[in-house]
Amino acid sequence: MTHFNAAVLALLTAEDDPAVLVTVRASRMRSHAGQISFPGGGKEGDETPVQTALRETFEEVGICPEDIDVDGQMPAIVAPRTGQKIVPVVGRLAARYSTSNPYPLVLSQLEVASAHWLKLADLAHPDNRGTWQYSTRTGPGFALDGLMIWGLTGYLMDRLLIREGFTQPWDVTRKLVIPSRFSPR
């Protein structure tokens, strides 16, 4: 089995026009407070990436693992600031739930300030895309519905859009400013 430190879940609705779940990390979190992320976190014991992603998703937003169909994994990525090896898992929410009939989320007040379902088509739209820069690092970012997705989550979202066939040409020279409430601490 591949060595990894953490896993995240890119959870999609099963609709033809799918949405993906993102969370805003609680302001009291030790790292990345206020930033947008996929549900996920650190591996416990001998867990697989799928087990870690499903457990963390249940802990953070209350979605039961049996309501998620795992669709595979994307290649692991090493977080530049921490050196942690993170495995992105892709899953689909049970078909009985949709953006018009949402899953009744139960947010962990310690970890999650809010949760949002964002349509992949909206994320892929060129008006919602750009490039962020922080210090010497840059990457793909998204500004949608008052949310700024950047950093590792922005990179993973870009890879998810490619994986799911939602790519569109976008202006990579368009600079997105990281709002102070989303900037690293």
Automatic annotation (TrEMBL):
CDD domains: NUDIX_CoAse_Nudt7 (cd03426). Keywords: Hydrolase, Magnesium, Manganese, Metal-binding. Residues 1-140 form the Nudix hydrolase domain. It comes from the Bacteria. InterPro entries: CoAse, NUDIX_hydrolase-like_dom_sf, NUDIX_hydrolase_CS, NUDIX_hydrolase_dom. SUPFAM superfamilies: Nudix. It holds the Pfam family NUDIX. Its cofactor is Mg(2+); Mn(2+). Gene3D superfamilies: Nucleoside Triphosphate Pyrophosphohydrolase. The keyword Manganese applies. This is CoA pyrophosphatase.
